[in-house]
Specification:
With 256 residues, this protein is of the alpha/beta class. Helices cover 28% and strands 21% of the residues.
Length: 256
């Protein structure tokens, strides 16, 4: 989710697709609208609407999903801020074609003000703060009191604050935010993510007394052109601390 193949830019590199692309298939946009509704319900009982998007391991689509969640939330006349908190391998500046000379790293480090690092109105209702220069101590910066105080202050000015964070099973960066945010939305990839890796990530969040807002499985095939537009990909959302094993071919399949 989205499952369509990435286009190539002029340099031959893969370009991540977002809902801002004009030729995104109808089932993809509808899937994100449904996800938006689920996220809104999950956050309705939380202390704030600051949440992180992460995954268990690398290359599971978390940054693309984070970008599209931010876009679709902003489409509801709300004010949304997307922060690239992956201070190791940031990509949001590439997704939205933004400069990355300054960003959250220079803001936390006291080198810039918020006004100097924020990219306002990237699309209507959506502001973005890129990573900025990669620091030598990413985990310490993300978990610093400066970062936590910043998030609390930003929540006063935005309806949603989304932080794209590194994979949980690789580094502990996302876990350092748990005492400040509402929870973590965990992204998995059909055919790549494993049950054990997902469960390890969920257990890490639980041990740190954090909340899992849900598990989004992207790149899932949907047979039969479900929406009548020839779409081939959807998602499955689970609102639970425990990620359930997918049924085998001998079991009755879960409904989408």
């Amino acid at each position: 989710m989205p499952g369509r193949k990435n286009k190539k830019d002029n340099g031959g590199r893969s370009k991540r697709r977002t809902l801002l692309d004009k030729d995104i298939a109808f089932p993809v946009t509808e899937a994100y609208k449904n996800l938006r509704t689920n996220i809104s319900f999950a956050l309705s009982t939380k202390r704030n609407k600051i949440f992180a998007v992460s995954s268990s391991l690398a290359s599971e689509g978390k940054s693309t999903v984070a970008a599209n969640i931010a876009i679709t939330l902003a489409q509801t006349n709300t004010k949304v801020l997307l922060i690239d908190g992956d201070l190791r391998k940031p990509v949001q500046h590439k997704v939205f074609n933004l400069k990355n000379n300054v960003g959250i790293s220079t803001l936390i480090g006291g080198l810039n003000t918020f006004k100097e690092v924020v990219n306002e109105g990237v699309t209507e209702g959506l502001d973005i703060v890129t990573c900025g220069p990669i620091p030598p101590n990413p985990s310490e910066m993300l978990g610093s009191e400066n970062m936590k105080s910043l998030l609390v202050e930003l929540a006063k000015h935005y309806d949603y604050v989304i932080v794209d964070t590194p994979p949980i099973n690789v580094v502990t960066d996302a876990l350092t935010l748990l005492d400040t945010i509402a929870g973590i939305l965990l992204i998995a990839k059909q055919g790549q993510s494993t049950f054990d890796a997902l469960q390890d990530a969920i257990d890490s969040v639980k041990i740190a007394n954090g909340s899992i807002l849900g598990v989004v499985v992207n790149n899932m095939p949907v047979g039969g052109g479900k929406y009548g537009y020839g779409g081939k990909y959807s998602y499955k959302y689970k609102y639970s601390y425990s990620y359930k094993r997918e049924p085998s071919s001998d079991d009755e399949e879960d409904e989408e």
